[in-house]
């Protein structure tokens, strides 16, 4: 029963994905087929589909998506860019460093890599092009820096991970992602400075550097956003779900009444677009519940985990195998989808080795971040290349350098777990 059901489950899922079926369809159909064929009780399908999304932490997911889009449309990115430019000053590679820093900061508001990359690319790619940066390089750099959004809190991916791994709380994961997220972003500065000095990018800057205090006053409302979100979480003033609501209303207030860049029409469009994105994500999570029920009832996930454990008993080699597997998966699927598909298989391995679930979640998420700008299915890179007007193929050479830089940060966090665990432990999570 296990062998037959496992073949139907995994092979059916792979075939549906290969022919281009949406992920939600592939998960739901393959899971339902196994339940029907193996007689696991057809009524478990609607029950598990409902249970997949009937989790309180998931309430934060659509609201953080709304908050991120609200800040993006409010024009926060432009003001943060001016402030970062005033801090960095005029030097070789300055605009590249500004792009990285702004992406990291906006990641502390949106929690979404593509949204982060889109907001920064609209502002930075034309400015970088004027200073000699090739558009393929700029698109790649912003896509890579934007991927830190799923590490730096609030992160939609880490919220989903906490739902699937109850022993890892949202506050602990948010705190755990701070240092690795900063390391991942800062790692990109090295290739940026190297290429800027090598090719002389940024030497012919005609634009004046914004004055520090003027740009600070313009950016202060955006700068306060992560302080309010993370400060409220730390002080216990509100839960992660309530933090998402506060962030959404704060973005609405800033865009409508402070910057006056939002109109009621634009607010309506943001509500519609964020609802569509949230519906897609939640539908995938719902049908992944059916897939997970079929696999766990059959014992297929445990059998697969035992198969992996049978390859080696060496902890370092197992981590390397998982990293390679996740990097490949990250090139093809988004972070939420990868968690839903692979975590049921990986959690028994985590238990067997006694790994900390918070640290392991951060490791997986760093892999997913790298996947967001690694062709062929790099979601961030799709966004930035479209804005830059260049092909995906033209970015491959640059992307390899960015991948190599961020892999160094990943290896550091893998080798030294305290980089991810020190802050949660210090905060008492």
UniProtKB/TrEMBL annotation:
Record's subcellular location: Cell inner membrane
* Swiss-Prot/TrEMBL keywords: Cell inner membrane, Cell membrane, Membrane, Transmembrane, Transmembrane helix, Transport
Looking up Pfam families in the UniProt record yields:
DctM
Q: How does it sit in the membrane?
A: Multi-pass membrane protein
Where would I find the TRAP C4-dicarboxylate transport system permease DctM subunit domain in this sequence? 11-419
The question of whether Lipid biosynthesis is a record keyword is answered with no
- Segments crossing the lipid bilayer: 7-37, 57-81, 93-111, 140-164, 170-195, 243-262, 274-296, 316-346, 358-378, 398-423
Per the annotation, which location comes first and is thus the protein's main one? membrane
NCBIfam families (UniProt xref): dctM
Explain the purpose of this protein: Part of the tripartite ATP-independent periplasmic (TRAP) transport system.
| Family under the similarity heading | Belongs to the TRAP transporter large permease family.
Quaternary structure, per UniProt, is: The complex comprises the extracytoplasmic solute receptor protein and the two transmembrane proteins.
| PANTHER family in the record | C4-DICARBOXYLATE TRAP TRANSPORTER LARGE PERMEASE PROTEIN DCTM (PTHR33362:SF5), SIALIC ACID TRAP TRANSPORTER PERMEASE PROTEIN SIAT-RELATED (PTHR33362)
Name of this chain's protein: TRAP transporter large permease protein
- Provenance organism: Noviherbaspirillum suwonense
